Amino acid sequence: MVRAGARARGTAARRPWHGALAWDRGWRREARAAWCWGFALGGVLAGADLARGSLDGPRAACWTALAAALVAVLRPARITAGAGWLATRGLLRERRVRTDLLTRVRQVDGVAPRLVLCDVAGNRVELDPRVLRANPLLWHELDAGVRRARERGLLREGAAVLDALGERVDGEGARAVLRASGVE
């Protein structure tokens, strides 16, 4: 039998950030995949050198550094949100914006589309819009902050980008509910 206090501590321990109300639910899976690919690359390279009989300390260090670099490139940023804020945490630093004080939102298209959020203090966060579409709770926290920024007249650029993203998130959520209920 699990005590109520132990359950509460376990739930808080699973949260990626204390105080976060929403977070990217797919982050662990993607981070685990990045580590697996890094270990696989390092293992294959070290194994090939070992089979050739040319594996020594410097070469093993080189393959380890290459595998670590692959992990650093593939590891996604951890995205969390709370009441009035959204944060991304990479390997080295964390960036946070106040969603209720947003002034500008831009969508940067390219190989990897990015959503760029800027607040009144000059803080800036970049994130993949797919994360918001896959995590309705994250979208809800961002949308609630954006509404407050609009009410205050702070959001001067990017309302159309957020409206289009909101329609897509809401549409995908409605389709998921219909699929789950067997109507669609």
What does this structure look like?
This protein has 184 residues and is α+β, with helices and mostly antiparallel strands. It has 2 domains: 25-76; 78-181, PH-domain like (Roll), CATH 2.30.29. Helices cover 55% and strands 18% of the residues. It contains 6 helices and 7 strands; from the N terminus they run αβααββββββααα. It has helices at residues 4-14, 27-52, 57-74, 129-134, 136-152, 159-181; strands at 22-23, 78-82, 85-89, 94-98, 102-108, 114-119, 124-127. The chain has a 4-stranded antiparallel β-sheet with strand order 1-2-3-4, with helices on one face. Strand 5 and strand 6 (114-119) form a beta hairpin. Helix 2 runs antiparallel to helix 3 (57-74). The longest helix is centred in the N-terminal third of the chain and has 26 residues, at 27-52. The two termini are 41 Å apart. Mean pLDDT is 85; it is low at 1-16.
Order of helices and strands: HEHHEEEEEEHHH
What are the low-pLDDT stretches, counting only 5+ consecutive residues below 50? 1-16
Distance between the termini: 41 Å
Gyration radius, rounded: 21 Å
CATH topology of the largest domain: PH-domain like
The number of helical elements comes to 6
| Major β-sheet profile | 4 strands, antiparallel
Helix content: 40-55%
Mean pLDDT: 85
CATH architecture of the largest domain: Roll
The beta-strand count equals 7
Proportion of strand residues: 15-25%
Q: Report the structural category.
A: alpha+beta
Strand order of the largest sheet: 1-2-3-4
For this entry, what is the oligomeric state of its chains? single chain
Shape estimate: elongated
Question: CATH class of the largest domain, anyone?
Answer: Mainly Beta
What's the domain count? Answer: 2
